[in-house]
Amino acid sequence: MENPCSSWLAESNWDNVTELDKLANFHGLMASFEQYPRDWNLWYTSAGPETAQLPGEWENGCNELQRMLIVRSLRQDRVAFCVAAFIINNLGSRFVEPPVLDMKAVVEDSTTKTPLIFVLSPGVDPTGALLQLAEASGMSRKFHALSLGQGQAPIATRMIKEGVKSGHWVFLANCHLCLSWMPQLDKLVEQLQVEEPHPDFRLWLSSSPHPDFPIAILQAGIKMTTEPPRGVKSNMKRLYQLVTEAQFTRCARPVLYRKLLFALCFFHSILLERKKFLQLGWNIIYGFNDSDFEVSESLMSLYLDEYEEIPWDALKYLIAGVNYGGHVTDDFDRRLLTTYINDYFCEAAVAAPFFKLSSLSTYYIPRDGPQSSYREYISLLPATEHPEVFGQHPNADIASQIAEARTLFDTLLSLQPQVTSGATAGAAAGPTRENKVLELAADVLQKIPGLIDYEGTRVLLADDPSPLNVVLLQEIQRYNALLHTIRSSLIELEKGIKGLVVMSSSLEETFHCIFDARVPPLWVKAYPSLKPLASWTRDLCQRVEQFARWAETAHPPTLFWLSGFTFPTGFLTAVLQSSARQHSVSVDTLSWEFIVATVDDNNLLFPPKDGVFIRGLYLEGAGWDKKNSCLVEAKPMQLVCPIPTIHFKPVENRKKIAKSKTKK
After folding, report:
1. Domains of the chain
2. Is the pLDDT of residue 14 over 70?
3. Global pTM?
4. Spatial CA neighbour of 450 closest among 551, 526, 527
């Protein structure tokens, strides 16, 4: 059935609905979109669809899990909230709240023969907590730590051997940086099982997750991991735990220091949490860490003590330009950093009462008081923050929540059993995995187009070796190679399932991918794509059609679909080369001017004199006003907005012209 709500419902979501309609309790779901399009649109665009009323009879006809399936099909960004609510309702809230790691209890559970392994996660360093534990356990003098790396292996071996005899605590940090020594460590841990070490001896290890870390050590040890705090509130709470009472009261101007400390904690937390917005947050993800915060805090205290008037410019430059800015390599990211520091570090922040730190009234610098009063205020902040706290559009949150949901789905898929047992393979249980894959493979084989006639096209274009024709021939070669790979791998897979050939590891991988409706890695090599198998296959047909038509007519199309090229950069370079030849100028002097069309594609009947018309591009994080030809804020739930056809026009010395205009 065709998508009846194509104006607001994406094809991938409609694919989910059509699949859901096949399940016993969901027959008629597709028809209800035709029956209640407005009601479904209201539900789809609501802020909390998991609690909103479903259209028609679906409100009373769905239990909690069935409602979750509808949310999963249409609003993936709300899946995490549904899952959390489902777990709380059925198991209890303690299963969704991360427990506090009690390291003292871990030591009591351990023996001299069990290594204690910290599985590291970004932004969390267990060293400080371990030092405090050693202090509390009276082992601080017998605590020996070593960060592993090149040339550290002999020292680490010696430390373990001495520790076994003398009863030391040995901490080997960052095992993932010394993987070549891991087999030796494996043997040392194996020896511990046979020896009788000193009763006080403990071996502590820390490592980032890595496939080459010895499994035997993991099996013998106790594994611990601490997730980095999530959300502005959790990050601020953690930072206020880092600042001791002595630090909090050491500054000669305590009121100013405490207000600016709060602003600094907020600044640090915003920078860390902004990465959840993916490319809408930072152009490049940076590893801001606690040492950035600690150095900035010391600088702030020092400058307040030394200067009568607060040197705002120097303080802002050292914190945002040097300290945090030392990580930043992108100009736009640097501009963002400067904007934040200018908002939080200003005269009003220390002079005005309840200075607002965002457009929302919830976040402000509280009334001055002891450290406990600041902690109390932080505990009252919302657990999950609105995108506007970061100065972001409400839609910005949706992309990060969809990414989180996809990670959850991928994990669930990887955990499902890979073999159908004989007991469940009967008719009552439905088709087996093998039958399902055979059915899907046959469907893909039927849908993919035939090869484009490369030799015929080459002969046809022999008289005109223009850069664009060279690009066409290269694209035909790549798509023909991909189509051949798809066809041969599916035919081989069919033979493998029927037992006619041996299933190789790549065929096995293709089998699991097709069953999970994912694109096999063997096929994705041609061009990157995040689409699931069904929409990827449709997309492939459209891509091949563009080049087949071009090859057939031997004339470039009036409108080019840039996304359809496997190597768009090559195509754009070819356009510049054609223009350079046409005007007898050097290709190095050319750059682009972009003119967005104000008329519909139907009215663009002829190609431009210079450059090309490009269709099918999208805006992310903004909308497009066709009437006034300008950017506008995106509508709710509109993550990407189609932009009209753009004229990519090669112009000479574009950068120099722009510079001379600014000088004038």
Report:
1. 11-89 (no CATH), 103-226 (3.40.50.300), 232-394 (1.10.8.720), 431-555 (no CATH), 558-654 (no CATH)
2. yes
3. 0.71
4. 551
